[in-house]
Amino acid sequence: MSCLVSLCVSLWLVALVARTSASSDEDINVLVLLPENNSYPFSIARVKPAIEYAKQGIKANGGHLSQLNFNIKYRNSECGNHALFALIDECNTRTDLILGPVCEYAAAGVIRVASHWDIPVISAGALAVAFDEKNPEYTHLTRVAPSYMKMAKTFASLFDQFSWKNAILIYDDDKEERNCYFTMEGVYVILNAEEYNIAHLTINSKEDKLDADEIVKSLHSEVIVICAHADIVREIMLAAHRWRMTNGSYIFFNIDLFNSSAYGNGSWKRGDIYDKEARAAYSVLNTVTLLRTVKPEFENFTIELRKSIQRPGVRDCKDCDNVNMFMEGFHDALLLYAIALHEAKKSGYSRKNGSEITRHMWNRTFEGIAGQVFIDTNGDREGDFSVMSMTDHEAGTYETVMNYFGINRTFQMMPGFNSDKFLLHGRSIAKAPSDHVTPDMSSSGGLGVSAVTGIIVGALLGTALLMAFYFFRKNYRITIERRTNREEFNAGKHRQLREDSIRSNFSTA
Q: Would you state the pLDDT for residue 438?
């Protein structure tokens, strides 16, 4: 009898240990909302290997975090309402964490609903100014990539460093995803708040033919900042060179946060007859981009991601093996959630307490795949950025000349830094292209000076009238809007994001 009792107790203890071991592992349901279209630098094919790499790393590192089992489901969000529909389709299954969306219009509705349902949302996107204000709609949003406002502080510090006073922001607004609009919106808001004189010029390359010469003739600001496709940036810089604006009297920037040609990647070479002029023009073009890391772990991360992407089944994914900020960001997103969940559980909460988990993600520093990540008290990542310039004018090659550290707003000048490239050398208006022939006025053909002057003035007036009529009829449109009042700007396009795009389209969500 005693043997039977001992056997029963032993079996009970074994079952108890097994049950305790099983209960120590916790299943976390993760919904990833990203587009399948590989033309996006944050497509599922690009980002999935990074998320899976983080999942494996959390499991392999041991400790408390290794007890988390992440059940990850990937759904096509496109860049619109599909993301919200995908979330609603999953309402029968408890979702503990949402990664994405990236596109502003896709993210808006998802974050509003997720915040209402108490589900944490972590994204390497949703970078627009509208998402800076978390209450009351975006309370559960944490951004693991620097927002456009964070990037814009780089320009504010540059203006202060080099005593610039005014700028014009040129951006291509496709009226769809509007990435360059949102990028420039951040720059405008920051610089305007610091009382610099800021104008902006909008082009729409999808609807209107670009007339780069007409654009550069209208430029009178000290600093010219461009956000557009790489080919458009090149056209504008070539026109600026033709109009003799690359002699140091203007400071040119383009913004390339995502290492993508859609944002002007600093490449001047096309193998055409304009390469020589483009190289000369780009010698004065500075590029603002994210600071790249040299951390050894990041190199291994890059190698493993490239192996995953090069496997069979990943099709139509040009440049997918180029690791970008979205891959880094979503890797760090899963790690951040695991850390926050562990801390929340120690305080007596569970994975169902999304607001508490979100609170533990904010105002903290942790080690990400590319280095330290600092999330501020508003749930937004601080950003470090680099300024790149052409340092070898013969080869036309670029290198980093300045690094900007957002957490303390300081610059690190690199060996290739040349302060002369950031100083204005005498202001002058744009002059006619050098290939325009200037009439020889050394001989008046026997006419008196007054007659010659009258003829010239009359000819100029007639020409001006003809040109005005010609340009009025020409089949293109360039919109130049100059606003120095911040309230006017917010009442215009900024309100279009907040109301038309976010509130109205998703008001029934």
A: 33
